[in-house]
Design goal:
With about 350 residues, the protein is of the alpha+beta class. It folds into two domains: about 5-230, Rossmann fold; about 235-344, OB fold (Dihydrolipoamide Acetyltransferase, E2P), CATH 2.40.50. The protein contains eight helices and 21 strands. It has helices at about 40-50, 95-100, 105-120, 135-150, 165-185, 195-200, 220-225, 230-235, and strands spanning about 5-10, 15-25, 30-35, 55-60, 65-70, 70, 80-85, 155-160, 185-190, 205-210, 210-215, 240-245, 250, 255-260, 270-275, 280, 290-295, 300-305, 315-320, 330-335, 340-344. Strand 13 (about 250) and strand 14 (about 255-260) form a beta hairpin. Helix 3 (about 105-120) crosses helix 4, helix 4 (about 135-150) packs parallel to helix 5 and helix 5 (about 165-185) packs parallel to helix 6 (about 195-200).
Length: about 350
């Protein structure tokens, strides 16, 4: 593994911020630490960067120990690049000079590297512009190019898109991902935004109380959450009551559903089953109906809150040409690709 974080603990006085934090990253892989405020994600980034000592555990990069077992390599010696949410560009320097700032060597080599990176981030035409003449997205790409210029062994991104418009964040996350892949640089980003994380990362770690609840591909986090916390935190969804029938099947108010693998509950045990909006399919001719309790129009679709005959509520993602009013009964059926259940 290229980056290896093992059993890291970090405390501030009596408060434990990181508790036995462990994860690893392959060369060229992009990871994201995803969590709410106070989850420990930013502290984890600062520990990797060398801005914070640890109370226990270790961090290694490229097989070399950075901290732990009495070793502590200073931040400026770790060859780790950092991209901040406020860009931190020098206002008095041009775009080209900002990118060249951390470079050493002959002027010809520096100019060649700057030109290469500005082409990569699609800003060659802005080489002689100043930061205040750029949009927020352009400034962020300059900050990325500057961090990549010295050829870091790892790049860390601290909420890099949080100051940008919502519409721009996901697009820029995809662009930054393409740039990192083109450079072959491993990276760790921290964010609270799930869409950014999913657009950017090969693997995502959901953090809670200083630990990683699940380290997995975005698809698996959404469709196969391992803990109730991850199921609640990732995406939209509700939990409906169920009763285990046998080792693979569970009875719900919406019908009887069987998973592809044993669910681990005894027959007759009551459980909570995760139902996503895309699991509830609207069909006018369906035998089962539900009442529209509320709705949110999102352009391409509606998110309907529906009340079942059992009194339980579910969410349904319905194409926008199916327009229904609050209080209307609509036909639905459940189409579960993944049966995710937790103890009641």
């Amino acid at each position: 593994m290229w980056l290896d974080v093992k059993s890291v603990c970090k405390r501030y006085g009596d408060k434990t911020v990181l508790d036995d934090l462990s994860f690893s990253l392959k060369a060229g892989e992009i990871a994201c630490l995803l969590g709410g405020s106070g989850s420990g994600k930013t502290t984890a980034l600062r520990v990797i960067a060398g801005f914070e000592p640890v109370a226990g555990g270790s961090v290694s990069l490229g097989g070399a120990l950075l901290c732990g077992d009495g070793t502590f390599v200073a931040a400026h010696k770790r060859q780790i690049g950092m991209v901040f949410q406020d860009h931190a560009l020098f206002p008095h320097l041009t775009v080209a000079d900002n990118v060249a700032f951390g470079l050493s060597g002959a002027n010809g080599q520096k100019k060649q590297r700057v030109a290469q990176l500005l082409k990569l981030v699609h800003l060659s035409h802005k080489a002689q512009a100043y930061p205040h003449e750029l949009s927020g997205g352009q400034q962020q790409r300059v900050a990325l190019a500057r961090s990549l210029a010295p050829g870091p062994r790892l790049l860390l991104l601290d909420e890099p898109f949080s100051s940008l418009d919502v519409a721009l964040r996901e697009r820029l996350a995809r662009e930054v991902r393409d740039i990192l892949k083109a450079e072959g640089v491993a990276a760790v980003m921290v964010t609270h935004d799930q869409q950014e994380a999913f657009a950017m990362a090969d693997v995502v770690g959901v953090m809670h109380n200083g630990r990683i609840e699940q380290w997995d591909a975005p698809y698996s986090l959404y469709h196969e959450p391992k803990t109730r916390y991850v199921a609640d935190f990732i995406g939209q969804g509700v939990f409906v009551n169920g009763v285990a029938e046998n080792e693979t099947c569970i009875a719900l108010a919406l019908g009887h559903y069987c998973g592809k693998a044993p669910h681990g509950f005894a027959a007759g045990q009551t459980v909570q089953v995760l139902v996503r909006p895309d699991d509830v399919v609207h069909e006018d001719g369906a035998q089962q109906t539900a009442l529209v309790q509320s709705k949110v129009f999102r352009g391409t679709d509606f998110i309907y809150t529906l009340t079942l005959a059992s009194g339980e509520e579910v969410l349904a993602q319905v194409p926008s040409h199916h327009r229904h009013e609050v209080g209307e009964a609509i036909g639905i059926y459940l189409d579960l690709d993944h049966l995710i259940a937790f103890a009641d």
